[in-house]
């Protein structure tokens, strides 16, 4: 949860390092800016749909695997049709780690929040202008971020986990009636959170 002022600096640092697609999307999330579908910038989750890595998740034998869009979301929500819908076991695993992440985020429990993040995102956060570890960087960002952007919006388990290779998007209906997505990344066979803030869906 870093403020807008950090976003350009962190993005610049990542560009200089030639970051991967995972770390480039991390640059927007780690700066505490809640992205919206169709927003500007190359780090939007929607814009990365066709630029993921070639690795595959345990349940995905092929990058070309697809399934019908997850029902209950707007037709404009492209992430509802991203890749394929993961099996229940994977969805439940992702839901639990995301729930832990969002509760920690809302409570200001930065140590727990950092533990739920994928390695590329942690590295991106720590490359910010503050040159601090993950916990301290998130704490600084939280001071500059409106509380509404760090609220826990989950009201139950996620509706779906859409997967393409090592990247997934956890989709859920928020407490406020808004639909949300959170980027997830497969790390050593386990799902981790790939952004700091959720993305609003249309």
Summarize the structure.
This protein is of the alpha+beta class. The chain is built from 6 helices and 6 strands; from the N terminus they run ααβααααβββββ. Helix content is 34%, strand content 14%.
Can you walk through the features of this model?
- The structure is a single chain.
- The chain is globular and about 45 Å long.
- The protein is α+β, with helices and mostly antiparallel strands and 202 residues long.
- Residues 1-44 and 46-57 have low confidence and may be disordered.
- It has one domain.
- It has helices at 4-17, 21-29, 88-107, 110-116, 119-126, 134-143, and strands at 84-85, 160-164, 167-173, 179-187, 190-193, 199-200.
- Helix content is 34%, strand content 14%.
What keyword list fits this structure?
alpha+beta, six-stranded antiparallel sheet
The secondary structure category is: alpha+beta
Number of strands: 6
- Helical content stands at 25-40%
* Proportion in β-strands: 5-15%
What is the overall silhouette? globular
Along the chain, the helix and strand elements come as HHEHHHHEEEEE
List the total number of helices: 6
Main beta sheet: 6 strands, antiparallel
Rounded to the nearest angstrom, the radius of gyration is: 15 Å
Calculate the mean pLDDT score and round it.
Answer: 78
Oligomer: single chain
């Amino acid at each position: 949860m870093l403020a807008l002022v950090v976003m350009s600096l962190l993005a610049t640092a990542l560009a200089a390092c030639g970051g991967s697609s995972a770390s480039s999307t991390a640059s927007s999330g780690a700066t505490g800016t809640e992205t919206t579908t169709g927003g500007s910038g190359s780090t939007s989750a929607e814009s990365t749909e066709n630029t993921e890595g070639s690795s595959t998740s345990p349940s995905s034998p092929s990058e070309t695997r697809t399934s019908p869009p997850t029902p209950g979301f707007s037709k404009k929500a492209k992430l509802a049709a991203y890749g394929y819908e993961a099996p229940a076991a994977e969805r439940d695993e992702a839901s639990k780690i995301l729930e832990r992440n969002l509760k920690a985020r809302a409570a200001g429990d930065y140590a727990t929040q950092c533990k739920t993040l994928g390695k590329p995102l942690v590295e991106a956060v720590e490359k910010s202008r503050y040159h601090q570890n993950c916990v301290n960087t998130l704490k600084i960002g939280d001071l500059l971020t409106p509380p509404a952007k760090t609220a826990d919006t989950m009201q139950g388990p996620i509706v779906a986990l859409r997967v393409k290779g090592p990247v997934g998007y956890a989709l859920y209906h928020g407490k406020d009636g808004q639909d949300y997505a959170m980027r997830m990344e497969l790390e050593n066979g386990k799902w981790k959170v790939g952004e700091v803030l959720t993305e609003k869906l249309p």
